[in-house]
Write a structure and sequence with these properties.
single chain, about 240 residues, Serine Threonine Protein Phosphatase 5, Tetratricopeptide repeat, about 0% strand, mainly alpha
Length: about 240
């Protein structure tokens, strides 16, 4: 799926969103979302250089530095400084920082817990093109958390996150096209998204693929495979 927060934030997100609660017939292994822009490998980053850029006002550096603080790569986990730099980047409408700050706000980690504020942050992030923001907003609509449950809206945002390359979103929208939940049933689209997710190691998609394939004609299979070969993920909003 999209890249994940590390260390404490993985635990945090799991507590917020819970275990698999998909409305579909297939059993899914749910992995909580995390901002696309804050997931680069921090094992060998130049923290001094990154902090200098962050302090100079670079929102990308501020968001990456927040990851370092959250993951302990700056020496120890420091949620206070993580929130500080995420807020600076969010004030510049940096989409992935908005999504990350939304997750912390929803969980009440480093900031007061506020579902309405978290939802607004996710929406700003999603509108700005953040894959994480789109996924998080889709999940709220699917569950009816903080917003009125709306499967069409959930499908809309899952689709956008899937187009950004998120394998969990690809699995979700693939199931929706198979079952006709929030979208019209379309086995070609179902196979496309499930194939893309399975190629990234999403095991539930791999299990569902033969079920969908057995329901399709030869022409449909050919069309779906062409769509898979032509797919290029959209970059997450920066």
């Amino acid at each position: 799926m999209k890249p994940k927060f590390i260390i404490s934030v993985v635990v945090l997100a799991g507590a917020v969103f819970g275990v698999a609660c998909f409305i579909f017939q297939q059993q899914a292994t749910y992995v909580p979302p995390a901002p696309n822009s804050v997931t680069s490998n921090t094992n060998s980053i130049d923290l001094a250089g990154l902090k200098a850029k962050a302090d100079a006002g670079d929102p990308a550096a501020q968001t990456h530095l927040a990851q370092a603080y959250l993951g302990g790569s700056a020496g120890k986990t420091d949620i206070t400084n993580a929130v500080k730099y995420l807020q600076l980047a969010a004030d510049k409408n940096y989409p992935d920082a908005l999504a990350a700050l939304g997750e912390l706000t929803q969980a009440g980690q480093g900031v007061p817990r506020n579902l309405d504020a978290a939802t607004q942050l996710y929406r700003r992030a999603a509108d700005g093109g953040s894959v994480a923001g789109q996924y998080n907003l889709a999940y709220l609509y699917e569950q009816g958390t903080g917003v009125k449950q709306d499967e069409k809206e959930a499908a809309k945002w899952y689709q956008l996150a899937a187009e950004g390359g998120d394998p969990i979103a690809q699995f979700d929208i693939g199931q929706r096209y198979k079952l006709g939940v929030g979208v019209a049933t379309n086995l070609v689209q179902a196979l496309k998204w499930l194939s893309l997710a399975a190629a990234q190691g999403q095991s539930d998609s791999a299990k569902l693929l033969p079920v969908v394939q057995n329901q399709m004609s030869g022409d449909q299979l050919t069309e779906a495979r062409q769509l898979v070969s032509q797919f290029t993920p959209r970059a997450s909003g920066k």
